[in-house]
Write a structure and sequence with these properties.
α1 crosses α2, α5 runs parallel beside α7 and α7 crosses α8. The protein is 39% helix and 13% strand. The model has no long low-confidence stretch (mean pLDDT 83). It is α/β, with parallel strands linked by helices. The chain has two domains: 41 residues; 302 residues, Metallo-dependent phosphatases (Purple Acid Phosphatase, chain A, domain 2).
């Protein structure tokens, strides 16, 4: 029995379905309710007969115009969103805070450039890395076996101790302490925030008074450093604790962060002080160089993972590798990455991980993490040698108080 001939109208229907679906045979076959193999056979038959879709030129033009209108509307919506974010950020900076000059671009600072060898008789440019203050958080000594205690009063003591200890190390323990200025890097998690229910329940006070108190404390730090070093450069990035959203955002991350708002108010406070320069990028990373050594400052919350053997180094090194690969593709290579977040002081040539002002807390204790004292990172960048002196700045005055114990300068076990 002969196979019945397929009518031209049925073949044209196949071609029209294929046209409507943009050439996608799978979707076209589904749209008219036939299997894919039958659909493909009918397309071949239609082509062999020289058939085409019966859509008129006017219909094709209308469909094309409709598609273009949809595309234009989509682009308009995306542009409006981006412009809205930029407008909000610029409006806050210029109108609400009153900044005359935005601090989101890297300024040109002659004192941070690599000098001529004969003109440089200094150890280099020091960097004091200040991050993970968690201002407003409370650490109960009864819950950490008495090894640490933290609250706003202790935080103020430790912040001042950080600055004074750094000054002591740089001027009383370094030969020829002549510095062209100091980098005071602010690396995020400056406030504890309300991102977890337990923090909302246990923080010492609400977020707004915490921000105001920290603002005053950092004003003192910056003034003290400016008086001592003559110039202060402050690269600033936000952390993950200061946000006012449930989850950390990729878009507009900084504009929902109390860290970013704190930095902007500090920049306004020192706007007329020529000794102080801020660099507050709108994104999560700050790129700058000191004496030709290129730094990338980030908070570090984007790096996740770790295990009981290698700890934080695994995710940090993987994250550094990814950032170096990404930055190499966009002509933004760096020599050393700086990050906080992990509350462990690690000072290497390729990466510097900061400690915390808060110190050991209930979370670290309950998860059996190794003990880490409250401390921050300090180092010097030399124009020829790169990073040279690396010094932890221990800030817990309670641990270091009292008369020093006299010990021999070296001893064999059993003779201590």
């Amino acid at each position: 029995m002969a196979t019945p001939k397929i009518a031209d109208s049925a073949l044209v229907q196949v071609l029209e379905a294929l046209d409507r679906c943009g050439g996608n045979a799978v979707h076209a076959a589904e749209s008219i309710g036939i299997n894919r193999s039958t659909f493909r056979e009918r397309v071949k038959m239609a082509q062999a007969r020289g058939l085409g879709a019966t859509r008129t030129a006017a219909e094709v033009e209308a469909l094309t115009a409709s598609a273009l209108r949809d595309q234009v509307e989509g682009l308009k919506a995306e542009l409006k969103f981006v412009q809205g974010e930029q407008l909000d950020a610029e409006y806050i900076k210029s109108k609400i805070i009153g900044l005359k000059k935005a601090a989101d671009t890297m300024p040109a600072l002659n004192w941070m450039l690599r000098p001529e060898k004969k003109a440089f008789d200094s150890p280099g440019v020091p960097t004091l890395f200040c991050s993970d203050l968690h201002w407003g958080e409370v650490v109960d000594p009864r819950q950490v076996n008495g090894v640490n205690q933290y609250n706003v009063a202790i935080a103020n003591e430790r912040l001042r101790a950080m600055v004074e200890t750094a000054i002591d190390l740089l001027f009383n323990h370094i030969k020829m302490p002549k510095y062209p200025g100091i980098v005071f890097a602010l690396g995020g998690d400056m406030v504890s925030g309300d991102i977890h229910e337990e923090l909302m329940a246990t923080n010492e006070t609400e977020i707004m008074p915490v921000v105001l108190d920290l603002w005053g404390a950092l004003v003192w730090c910056i003034e003290r450093l400016a008086d001592k070093f003559g110039r202060v450069f402050l690269p600033c990035v936000g952390g993950n604790h200061g946000r006012n959203t449930h989850k950390i955002r990729a878009k507009g991350r900084n504009f929902t962060s109390f860290d970013w708002l704190l930095y902007q108010f500090l920049a306004k406070r020192f706007e007329s002080d020529s000794r102080v320069t801020f660099f507050i990028p709108d994104g999560p990373d700050a790129h700058y160089s000191v004496m030709g050594h290129r730094y990338l400052l980030t908070h570090g919350d984007q790096f996740r993972g770790g295990d009981g053997m290698i700890g934080a180094l695994g995710p940090i090194i993987r994250g550094d590798h990814k950032k170096r690969s990404r930055n190499a593709q966009i002509d933004m290579e760096y020599d050393t990455m700086m990050l906080g977040h992990w509350h462990q002081l690690i000072q290497l040539q390729r990466l510097i991980v900061n400690g915390s002002l808060k110190g050991y807390d209930e979370y670290a204790y309950s998860n059996n993490f190794g003990y880490e004292p409250a401390r921050q990172a300090l180092w010097i960048t030399h124009p020829e040698q790169g990073i040279t002196f690396s010094m932890p700045v221990n800030v817990d005055r309670h641990k270091n108080s009292g008369k020093a114990i006299e010990r021999p300068w070296v001893a064999i076990k059993g003779d201590e």
